Amino acid sequence: MLYGISKGISHNDKLCLTDFFLRHLRSRFRSSNAAYLKQQRHVVVGSKSFSILKSSTPRKAASIKVNTLNGLNHSHSYQIRTMKTLNFGGTKETVYERSDWPKEKFQEFFKNDTIAVIGYGPQGSGQSLNARDNGLNIIVGLREGGRSWNEALADGWVPGKTLFPIEEALKKGTIILNLLSDAAQKELWPKFVPHLTKGKTLYFSHGFSIVYKNETNVIPPKEIDVIMVAPKGSGRTVRSLFLDGRGINSSIAIFQDVSGKAKDTAVALGIAIGSGYLYETTFEREVFSDLVGERGVLMGAIQGLFLAQYEVLRSRGHTPSEAFNETVEEATQSLYPLIGANGMDWMYAACSTTAQRGALDWYKPFHDATKPVFEKLYEAVANGSETRRVLEKNSSPTYREELEKELEEIRESELWKSGKTVRSLRPENK
């Protein structure tokens, strides 16, 4: 929220300003007793700032720390940047919410920018469509005539107006969203460099290319801002949650802040592309946790566990439908949504005493058996060997053919053929 004051800042003005913000805080946070440790307002006056801290209960007095308001004798804009410091299991972290950057605020912030989205995979399409729907000036850069180009046409992007060949979009963009695949980012980086001129911002949704620069050769010029907004989910989810009026959670990181406003740009763009809230990380922490998660409980480990349990049940005489229902269907259709909504402690407390006792007894052996695998996985990510494998495999001229063979092996397995039949029996699929 912006507050304009178009007169000199006298001592009395300072007192009035202080009183104004304190009253504003009391009214905003009157009902906030326990949820947050504190809420902090940063007030920016020209190039100088002060902050207002609100304690955790409305009964405690707010304190104000003035860095400087001296020497100001002309019109200034006062910007309140909201941050919440929350307790995550005993560790305090700062988060930013959609209410901090309402649509009119980020539209004003980006009113002079052309935001060029390079790439139209799940993230490129989801983020660009959301930002377009939010009223920002978005253009898309793609290989002309390719599959993604045709998908963009179907989504309403207009050649010569909002859809351009990659290098033309790079030239036009003041903020460039590099949403190509990791392998394509390495391949096409030489096309980016001439257009990354002073004053521009380079944006990523994954820290891969920056962190593994020795493998990718992606090294941004020193005179530009480099930021990241990393949605914690697929691009399709970014779009579907936005259309549902909800929002995905995302992380933000700053690699280079030349302008002094890189964090504001990251937070504003994060909200504009559909995030419900944002938390802070670094490029390295993002890529390490992301790669471990994808290979672990998000996809790799889940398939391994599903398959192992299914195989044991089948080998002991259970039918395919029973084995699939007890392994996958009950998990994805019943338990996982409840865990997501309420937590594992709630799930354990809400199940039958038989299930409860077994789960409490057996999660520890599973933890002990799998933790060494996760340690090995993390080390492979941290030392770069996993990255080298990804780039080597994904850059192979026979990549798509080899990928199809691997996917076919999963698709044609009894586990997932049974799953196809089970899914067809759901009432909503009739």
UniProtKB/TrEMBL annotation:
Transit peptide recorded as keyword: yes
Positions contributing to substrate binding: 352
Gene Ontology molecular function terms on file: isomerase activity; ketol-acid reductoisomerase activity; metal ion binding
Keyword Glycoprotein: no
GO BP annotations, alphabetical order: isoleucine biosynthetic process; L-valine biosynthetic process
Major subcellular site: mitochondrion
Pathway noted in the entry: Amino-acid biosynthesis; L-isoleucine biosynthesis; L-isoleucine from 2-oxobutanoate: step 2/4; Amino-acid biosynthesis; L-valine biosynthesis; L-valine from pyruvate: step 2/4
Family (UniProt): Belongs to the ketol-acid reductoisomerase family.
Protein name per its UniProtKB record: Ketol-acid reductoisomerase, mitochondrial
Organism the protein comes from: Rhizophagus clarus
Phylogenetic lineage: Eukaryota, Fungi, Fungi incertae sedis, Mucoromycota, Glomeromycotina
